[in-house]
């Protein structure tokens, strides 16, 4: 479909129809985001719907729609996504920030303010969204660590984007980490290996390195359990994101580490295990 000369309003309608026919959920929302992106805008305001798409903008929109029809995540197409009210750059090879993870950030923020924590280590940092959001909101110094060079580069860009000074380390969990911290956060890979091939098409665009948690999905939790203690200060806390059905297994695994709490996300699913030492 040719969008040249179309208004933004018509572009949204046409794009929404194409995405809907392709089976894309929330097709109208995605269409609005893609039209705004083609126009060089962060979002469409009421007055923007009268704008006419130029030849270049029409081509950009057509390309974006085809990418989305192939199930490439909207976030990768846009190149940026919001988390905790802040913008984060995302690209293939980097896990997309999700609202579920805000449950972890909110729990961490409460602890930081209550206990006066000053240092944070965020392992499996991905885009850096957890550590950067907490540094931005609480003033805590964040160290961001990930095994992936793509993630390390992206986290550095996001720290600059959000005017936050962070220490960034390429590390396989704690292997490259020196020193200890008041707070350790992690959203590790937690999907069981045999489930990976059955994931939603969009999710399969994301890096397996950030998703595959081994045979039972708990491999990284075991590694964290065995190695985190030298890096956590006395009176500190470890906060882990988990899958909806892992609460019992992860709380049992860390039962010997301190006071354990399991927190639920807005959907009522088990989402965060909090270990206070």
Please give a handful of descriptors for the protein shown.
277 residues, alpha/beta, seven-stranded mixed sheet, two-stranded antiparallel sheet, 9 helices, 19% strand, elongated
What would a concise description of this structure say?
This protein has 277 residues and is of the alpha/beta class.
Describe this structure as you would to a colleague.
This protein is an alpha/beta fold and 277 residues long. 36% of the residues lie in helices and 19% in strands. It is built from nine helices and nine strands. Strand 4, helix 7 and strand 5 form a beta-alpha-beta unit. Helix 5 packs parallel to helix 6.
List the helices and strands and how they pair.
Layout: H1 8-21, H2 27-38, H3 55-69, H4 74-78, E1 80-83, E2 86-89, H5 102-115, E3 119-123, H6 129-138, E4 141-146, H7 149-161, E5 166-170, E6 181-186, H8 219-227, E7 232-241, H9 247-253, E8 259-264, E9 270-276
Parallel strand pairs: 3-4, 3-6, 4-5, 6-7
Antiparallel strand pairs: 1-2, 7-9, 8-9
Profile the largest sheet: 7 strands, mixed
Structural class: alpha/beta
Number of strands: 9
Mean pLDDT: 96
The low-confidence runs, each spanning 5 or more residues with pLDDT under 50, are: none
Helix content: 25-40%
Strand fraction: 15-25%
* Span of the ends, CA to CA: 59 Å
How would you spell out the order of helices and strands?
HHHHEEHEHEHEEHEHEE
Radius of gyration: 20 Å
Number of contiguous helices: 9
Shape: elongated
Spatial arrangement of strands, main beta sheet: 5-4-3-6-7-9-8
């Amino acid at each position: 479909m040719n969008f040249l000369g179309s208004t933004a309003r018509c572009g949204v309608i046409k794009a929404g129809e194409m995405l809907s026919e392709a089976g894309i959920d929330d097709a109208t929302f995605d269409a609005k985001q893609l039209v705004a992106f083609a126009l060089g805008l962060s979002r469409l305001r009421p007055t923007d719907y009268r704008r006419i798409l130029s030849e270049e903008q029409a081509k950009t929109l057509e390309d974006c729609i085809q990418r989305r029809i192939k199930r490439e995540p909207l976030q990768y197409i846009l190149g940026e996504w919001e988390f905790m009210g802040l913008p984060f750059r995302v690209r293939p090879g980097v896990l997309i920030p999700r609202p579920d993870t805000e449950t972890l950030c909110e729990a961490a923020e409460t602890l930081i303010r209550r206990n006066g924590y000053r240092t944070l280590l965020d392992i499996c940092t991905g885009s850096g969204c957890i550590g950067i959001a907490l540094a931005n909101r609480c003033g805590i110094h964040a160290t961001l660590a990930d095994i992936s060079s793509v993630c390390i580069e992206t986290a550095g860009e996001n720290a600059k984007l959000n005017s936050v000074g962070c220490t960034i380390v390429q590390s396989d969990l704690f292997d490259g980490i020196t020193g200890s911290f008041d707070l350790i956060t992690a959203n590790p890979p937690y999907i069981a290996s045999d489930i990976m091939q059955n994931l939603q098409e969009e999710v399969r665009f994301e890096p397996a390195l950030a998703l595959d948690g081994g045979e039972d999905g708990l491999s990284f939790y075991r590694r964290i359990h065995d190695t985190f203690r030298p890096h956590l200060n006395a009176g500190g806390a470890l906060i882990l994101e988990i899958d909806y059905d892992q609460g019992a297994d992860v709380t049992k695994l860390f039962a010997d580490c301190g006071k354990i709490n399991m927190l639920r996300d807005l959907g009522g699913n088990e989402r965060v295990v909090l270990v206070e030492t």
